[in-house]
From TrEMBL:
Recorded GO MF terms: 3 iron, 4 sulfur cluster binding; 4 iron, 4 sulfur cluster binding; electron transfer activity; metal ion binding
The protein, known as: Ferredoxin
Organism of derivation: Methyloglobulus morosus KoM1
Transmembrane segments: none
Cofactor: [4Fe-4S] cluster; [3Fe-4S] cluster
Length: 106
């Protein structure tokens, strides 16, 4: 499955949800996740993310492996999102900032 990683936090651009053919993105307060049981590995979402936050499971950057589990867990708790919405305020400022995992709201 594909995995949403740290740089989505506090950005949530949502371009990714527009292209997913199986509607497997789920939305929390300041982060999106992919349901690994629904993702069909079509690869369409990866280039759409302005924050480059989406990776194939076996290409998740070093140090971000915990996001594989977070996507699996949180996708069971959060509602599906299928429509593009406005990014979070200051998304452009947060894009690329390190250490955002501790800011993840569940
Ligand atoms: Fe959806 Fe395809 Fe991305 Fe999986 S790889 S989340 S199926 S757009
Ligand atoms: Fe997040 Fe990128 Fe989608 S910032 S909401 S994974 S377009």
């Amino acid at each position: 499955a594909f995995v949403v990683t740290e740089n989505c936090i506090k950005c949530k651009f949502t371009d990714c949800v527009d292209v997913c053919p199986v509607d497997c993105f789920h939305q929390g307060p300041n982060f999106l996740v992919i349901d690994p049981d629904e993702c069909i590995d079509c690869t369409l979402c990866e280039p759409e993310c302005p924050a480059n936050a989406i990776f194939a499971e076996d290409e998740v950057p070093e140090g971000q492996e915990q996001f594989i589990q977070l996507n699996a867990e949180l996708s069971k708790l959060w509602p599906v999102i299928t429509e593009v919405t406005k990014p979070l305020p200051d998304a452009d400022d947060w894009n690329g900032k390190p250490g955002k995992l501790e800011l993840l709201e569940k």
